[in-house]
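Lecture notes, unit on protein representations.

Consider one protein chain, 298 amino acids long.
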Amino acid sequence: MFRLIHISDLHLGPLPAARLRDLASKRILGYVNWRRNRSQAFGDDVEAALIAAIAAERPDHIAVTGDLVNIALTGEYATAFAFLGLLGAGDVVSAIPGNHDAYVPGAARRARKAWAAYMTADAGEADNWPYVRRRGDVAIVGASSAVASGPFMATGTFSEKQEERLAMVLDKLGRAGLCRVVLIHHPPVKGATAWHKRLSGASRFRKVIARFGAELILHGHTHRPTRLSVPGPQGDVPVIGVPAATQRPGGKHPAAGFNLFDIDRTEAGFLIRHRLMQVTAGGVFEQTRAEEIVSGDR
């Protein structure tokens, strides 16, 4: 059995001190939003409980699907790197960036440099998006939808270049008989988000999945524990979201949570047991949903 934990949208705080020139961009909007809303909605207390709850589950691997920071200030990268270190070393934690990690031009590049240990491919694999990490019967495929967008926008992009590489790696990994887990920040399902938060190029992503398939697609961005799907060559492929990882209970969004997947190989494919764990008002993570996902004959 392989145990995979999925978290997203940490929006780690507090924000470091910012100069006026740092805020002379879209950042001023995010800074105001943090001060008015997110600084109260997200908390260090939930962060500490999250780390303890994840450790107690003894995962084989942890997937982080973006938005570790808020407005991509330089000091935020160090905070996020320290958090990733609390989860584990780079070989047991795989991360991808979200739109907040790419908040302004150049930010996505700086995030990948700062978090390189958690965002690079295995030796022998091409080190570009999407990257590939093989862990036993499981292959982690990390795509990036993170691009800088304009004020009041939180869109992402899935490029033609990534489409070509995703097709190649999913075909190769499928032929090798691996359980393919694709990470992307923005949900690739039509209508899954509002227009100003959509994924541009989502049809490219879906076209690749329709042809080559995958066993799981994990995303963040919506701050909600959703179960959607996209067509694959042998039936629908599950597309699973997760609550923001440090959201306090009692707010307008679901309380913090993480997805836990126990993956077993079967004669026909893979059996994946999925549990959603969410924080309670008492600060304890408890199971709130459970289901089985069957990957059929290939």
